[in-house]
Amino acid sequence: MDKEKIMDLYAQHVSPGKVEMYKKYDIALVPHKRRGVYLYDISGKRFINCHCNGGVFNLGHRNKIIMDAVKKAMQRYDIGNHHLISKPKALLANKLSATLPQGLNQVIYGVSGGEAIDTAIKLARAVTGRPTVLSAIGGYHGHTGFALATGDEKFKKPFEPMPPGFQQVPFNAIDALESVIDDKTAAVIFETIPATLGIVVPNKDYFKKVQALCERHDALFIIDEVQTGFGRTGAMWGFQHFDVTPDIVVMGKGMSGGIYPITATVYKEQYAYFIKENPFIHISTFGGSEIGCFAAMAVLDLCDSNLLAHVQTMENYFKEKLAALASHYPETPFTVHGLGLMLGLAFHDEMTALFMVKLLYDNGVYVVYSGNDPRVIQFLPPLIITKKEADMVMAAIDKSLEALSQSK
Ligand SMILES: Cc1ncc(COP(=O)(O)O)c(C=O)c1O
How far is the CA of 327 from the centre of ligand 1 (A)? Predict the structure, then answer.
């Protein structure tokens, strides 16, 4: 089937708005073949995927080791039964706990990140008996029930009324949090590095202060590691850069290598009593599918110290090369910020960033900009990217900046 026909069908039955928008900017990518860092449009055009669905493809597209684990699991397993005891769920929970600080060892599985956030908020409200949930203005935790309620007005408005008790505060501003947190606060929830806000790395001591405020008010500290988890920042978990131990950690995206959906809400042992007393209070038919568990276990095996060291090496490589490009094109100023391979390329204005997204697309690099700060291009290459592939990305950025300079 040709590309036009697919786009027509998609417009007819799935999303006419998306098709219209992508066609308008001539960036209608219809993924076809995919492998490693590469993603091919159905026309045959090749891209290096530097979006990676926000971390889903950390280990590249169709990673062979994860595919083999899933294929093997499929010979004996299916999704399992969410009412019953499960060996793969138990094994994965044990393996996940080993990557987290001591005590963070209770796992509730989900299918999507939004669902896992909802679960975290349910749990926080249940164990504190309090209503209020504080989150970041411009942050993003998903489009499901409670996750949506933590987010910005523009996404909530059409679906009002929202559940009560949700309030947003500026991110990385401890005084603002201190002024609203009180004895009604069930939880404070933040992404470690909010991507939608523009890949904002908070001050080194911010989360420590957040944790102290939560402790002072007996509120739970929830960290959303959906994008920052599984090595994306050069540490297994993003929060490890900030020397804190959250009460609940939410993970998704990269958890199963983009092969089989699975997410998790991992919480401290001291709250296990609630699920023990109410074992059926939260259930999810597909949550923690047994085949997904095998995908996630393969991912955990791959997220070893070698991968983390590689991410750190590539972080330095990209930062150095990008800084060199920035000084080579002073007429298109941009800065680079972020941790590991979760980088933001911040341009002076929105239009320049949008042009760059388009030029990079034309030059075979797929990126997106941050919804709540469109001056910032989200630059999330696969963690397994080699120096040779990184050089191809840099050549595309160079070419795009040159084209931009010539158009000025
Ligand atoms: C930080 C963060 N949290 C939660 C979510 C929601 O995940 P999902 O789309 O799997 O529901 C996302 C999705 O982009 C995200 O980036």
Answer: 35
User: What are the pLDDT digits (tens) for 180-233?
Assistant: 999 999 999 999 999 999 999 999 999 999 999 999 999 999 999 999 999 999
pLDDT tens digit sequence for 32-53: 999 999 999 999 999 999 999 9
- Please indicate whether residue 246, judged by its CB atom, sits closer than 6 Å to ligand 1: no
CB atoms within 10 A of CB 321: 17
- What's the CATH fold of domain 64-302? Aspartate Aminotransferase; domain 2 (3.40.640)
Residue 227 CB–ligand 1 contact under 6 Å:
yes
Q: Tell me, using a 6 A CB cutoff, whether residue 66 lines ligand 1.
A: no
What CATH code is assigned to 3-62+306-406?
3.90.1150.10
Domain ranges of the chain: 3-62+306-406, 64-302
From the list 182, 187, 183, the residue with the least C-alpha distance to 166 is 187
Q: Based on the number of CB atoms within 10 Å of its own CB, is 112 exposed (0-12), middle (13-18) or buried (19 or more)? A: buried
For residue 279, whether the previous peptide bond is cis, meaning omega lies within 30 degrees of 0, is no
Whether the CB of 142 sits within 6 Å of ligand 1: yes
Distance CA 48, CA 392 (A): 9
- The pLDDT tens digits of the residues spanning 320-332 come to 999 999 999 999 9
**Which residue is closest in CA terms to ligand 1's atom 13?**
142
Ligand 1 contact via 88 beta carbon (within 6 Å): no
Is the fold of 3-62+306-406 the same as that of 64-302? no
Question: Tens digits of per-residue pLDDT, 313-358?
Answer: 999 999 999 999 999 999 999 999 999 999 999 999 999 999 999 9
pTM: 0.97
